[in-house]
Amino acid sequence: MSLDSFTDSVDEAVSGFFEPIAKWLGDVVFYSVPVNGTELPLIVAWLVIAGLVFSAGFGLIQIRKFPLALKVVRGKYDEKGSAGEVNHFQALTAAVSGTVGLGNIAGVAVAVSIGGPGATFWMILCGLLGMATKFVEVTLGVKYREVHADGSVSGGPMHYLPKGLAERFGARGKTLGKVLAVLASAFVLFFGLFGGNLFQVNQSYAQLVSVTGGEDGVIGGSAGALFFGILVAALVGIVLLGGIRSIASVTSKLVPAMAGIYIVACLVVILVNVSAVPSAISTIIEGAFNPQGVAGGVLGALIIGFKRAAFSNEAGLGSAPIAHSAVKTKHPASEGLVALLEPFIDTVIICTMTALTIVIANPASYVELRNGGESIGGVTITSDAFATVLPWFPYILTIAVMLFAISTVLTWGYYCMKAWTHLFGRSKASEITFKVMYTLVAVAGSLLTLQTLIDMADAVLFMLAVINIIGLYLLAPVVKRELNNFLDFVRRRDAGQDTEADEDEDQEPVKTTV
């Protein structure tokens, strides 16, 4: 049996077994209600409402404290002797690398095709709301993290849900928190293996094949797929062995590089068509409030824009606090402020650049889909937008896709490791078992599609958002206290007072475990 026949058999067997489960889970998690001629997924409303509540509750912190967040990420308020493994900038890039991915390229293209250019406006608004949610969950992630005897750090919803709920509600909160922590770990692990790993490798390989001659090209066959999978797996395995310090070191270079390459590519398309920029911006604004050919009219454009942003920046899903928890700081809210930059980078900047490039370039594939043509892959539309300027621009896109995919695989490898060790312990054997499993899944990514498992992974990740946001609501008073503590520290530091020995008297000491 050839390798192609074997992988096809595996795909069919997995799909046949899991398809009914995936369909049922998707129907439950992404349950939609008809609203003015379009469908509103309740999970998207859940995420957007959280953004609204936290934006109001913290007085539009994403706007008021944006300049302070930039100062913190530059290291102005760093403190000597802080527990943690990485600095603020490295923690931010590690987390951004987990959210910035193919969804920013392909998903946005689909959003502006189906929801019209006006979906861009609502996407930006949802990204701004998500900044407040990200602030809350990351502050809690650092507040309730664990620092182990070897100096490594573990954090995320599997830590702040049990500890925070026990602290606020006693024995009942502790019991509930433990159950939620196990569920959170399982959800993160499942999504990481199939959505954060296999899917990213699969799609980056597909893009590489498309620009190297297709199925008949140099890497189009099963041997090329296997080589690509092994190469990615080797790179990921080597970096994972170094833990978050190694991942942060790579992503702190990779994220600026990939974002820079992609934004420059978008700017070239925009500058070549600079005369069309005012018209494109006008079209986006007009389309937000008076969309043409969009089911549900304004509400339809709004829902599609919100859906794309919510799926892209992961605000409220509980994944980013895992990476941010490793930061070196004595004040949890300092990293919460840094984290609010994440949806701004992911959604407000990168997603908007993609949408603006497509609207301005107006490639034939985009026009066809807008006019009711058959479904076209989102990455194809973006690639065609680049090709309107120079035929070789899709190669630039391929480089960006590869960087996005590898950085996402790396970061989700770290997230999965923390989930795995929470469930199965931090022994050497346990960690090695996970790393071998994760690298094997990366190899499989170039050979298999396993679309059914990927669909299940999406549903599972958004199930995490339900329990995570409930926890965020219950623990919001803790976040307010932490914010006030940090702002007091900032005032004293700016006034020139000695803060080297500053300790938060109201804060429980970080738990250290073996």
From TrEMBL:
Out of the domains of life, which is the source?
Answer: Bacteria
The subcellular location is:
Cell membrane
Protein keywords: Cell membrane, Membrane, Symport, Transmembrane, Transmembrane helix, Transport
Provide GO CC annotations from the record: plasma membrane
Q: Which Gene3D superfamilies match?
A: Amino acid/polyamine transporter I (1.20.1740.10)
Keyword Repressor listed? The answer is no
Protein name per Swiss-Prot or TrEMBL: D-alanine glycine permease
Species this chain originates from: Streptomyces venezuelae
